[in-house]
Amino acid sequence: MSQEGTSPNQPQSPAIAGKARKTPSRRFCTAPMMDWSDKHCRYFWRQLTKDTLLYTEMVTTGALIHGNRDRFLEYNEIEHPVALQLGGSNPSELATCSRYAEEWGYDEVNLNVGCPSDRVQNNMIGACLMAHPQLVADCIKAMQDSTSIDVTIKHRIGIDDQDSYEHMRDFVAIVAETGCKTFIVHARKAILQGLSPKENREVPPLRYDDVYRLKQEFPELEIIINGGIKTHDQIAEIMPNIDGVMLGREAYQNPSVLIDADELYFGKPANTESAKDAVRALYPYIETLLAKGAPLHYVSRHILGLFNGQRGARLFRRYLSERAHLRESGIQVLEEALQLID
Predict the structure, then answer these.
(1) What residue spans carry the Polar residues bias annotation (predicted)?
(2) Claim to verify: residue 257 and residue 312 sit in the same structural domain
(3) Composition of the chain by helix, strand, coil, percent to 5
(4) Most buried among 22, 201, 278, 285, by the most CB within 10 A?
(5) How far does CA 228 lie from the centroid of its chain?
(6) Mean pLDDT of all residues belonging to the chain
(7) Same domain for 238 and 280?
(8) φ and ψ of 67, to 5 deg
(9) What is the average per-residue pLDDT within 117-143?
(10) Is the bond into 81 cis (omega within 30 degrees of 0)?
């Protein structure tokens, strides 16, 4: 789950959370990514783009109901618009956690029906739920009945031998009967036995045409596409066929791709003039974390790919990787690393 570390502001809590926020735009968003899209990563991304919708890592219902709720739900106000992704298959538990999402001020709550790992399958979480469309519909309905914020779903185009377009169409039709309007589709099927989660993000072929066809057949639904998207030129080709795009690994491994998002997809000025400015904008946030005992690498690990393709990028990554975990490392280490970029 999320890296430890205290938020520099007071945690968002039920006592101070406001009323439900306006529906965020999903024209361009970042994917929920385990161990990557934690609150520190999202704070960094917010220096690059103001309007992109950011998704948390998946949080299981059990973790919220029985664990340290503050740890999993805490975020910084600057992260808005931000959506909480839940993992679970018990309608009552998902309803409870959806209420938490609204109480804490999240802009959306999303159900994970796409993760293929063995661990979540054993708990009836993730992609295996595509074989149980009525259960998923029951979960979505319970979530909707418990909150006024948007309830959305992220799923695959299929699993194992249930991977025809017709299987996905029927799954979406059953879930859409609940009134769910937003379907985020990872355009690969998941192979639940024999492939690792990493292989499931790479081995099954992308099938964008199936997602485009889904939009044609359900024009009233908001269809967001995910999987294999890397460049704005690629997005320009995709966008006429669907309602929005979600970037996963590319946003994390090459975060400079986010700098142009506000201008290209929201008609707003860029949120930063340069990648270096975005790093320096993090300094007050990092100093507050350091003062509370958190190491530099809680934040710096998320920025290692920011200068990919530029001269000095390898030195920048090496310099931070070798020093950021040291207890004495502070802002000066980041500034020295920036000097290595030409």
Answers:
(1) 1-13
(2) no
(3) 45, 15, 40
(4) 278
(5) 15
(6) 93
(7) no
(8) -105, -160
(9) 89
(10) yes
b/e per residue 55-78 (b: at least 16 CB within 10 A): bbbbbbbebbeeeebebbbbbbee
Tokens (6 digits) for 7 = 């938020």
Q: Does residue 134 form part of some domain?
A: yes
The pTM of this model reads 0.92
Nearby residues of 161 by Cβ (< 8 Å), 6 or more positions away:
none
Per the structure, how many domains does the chain have? Answer: 2
Residues in binding site for FMN: 32-34, 85, 154, 186, 226-228, 248-249
Report the CATH number that the domain containing residue 303 is assigned in CATH.
1.20.120.1460
| Helix (H) and strand (E) counts in the chain | 17, 8
Domain limits at 140? 28-266
**Annotated catalytic sites, by residue?**
115
Of residues 258 and 4, the one with the higher pLDDT is 258
Query: What six digits make up the tokens of 239?
Result: 């966008």
- Mean predicted confidence (pLDDT) in 228-252: 98
Q: What is the pLDDT of residue 120?
A: 65
In a domain, 23, yes or no: no
Q: Which amino acids are annotated as binding site, given as ranges?
A: 32-34, 85, 154, 186, 226-228, 248-249
Say if residue 76 is in the same domain as residue 217: yes
